[in-house]
Amino acid sequence: MKTSKILTLATVVSALAVAGCQTGMSDGGGPRAARQTGVEGQWMGTDGVAVSTLQGGRFSSRAVETGETLTEGSYSHRDARTIELSFYSLKSQQQTAATCLLATSDQMNCTLANGTNFVLNRAAGVS
Fold it and tell me: What is the set of domains in the chain, with CATH numbers?
C-alpha cells in the first residue's frame, strides 16, 4: 500500500510540476522558434509514469500507459524562474502544492509541500 501511495504521489507531483511551470506566451504575430522556451508545453517526470501539459496558466497530467487524467490544477510565477503549483490529484482526491525552479530550458526541479523532490524534463515527441 505504501508503494501505491508513493507512485500516486509521484504521478501527482509530475503533473503539478508541469502545470506550475507554465508561462503565458505572447502571440507576438512573428515566427516562433522551433525550440520551446519558458515552461509551456509537455513535461515528463524522470519516473516516466506521467506527462504533464502546461497551457495558459492551467495544467493537467495523464498516465503515459493509459492516458488517464491524474491531476488538474493551476500555476503562478513567484519570479522569472520559480513557479508555484496548486493541483488536485484525482486518484488520491487531495489538494497539493509544489514549488518548481526552472533549472534549464529543459529541466525543472520541484519540491512538494511535504518536502518530496522530483524532476521534470521537457518531453519531446509525446502525444
Answer: 2-23+39-122 (2.40.128)
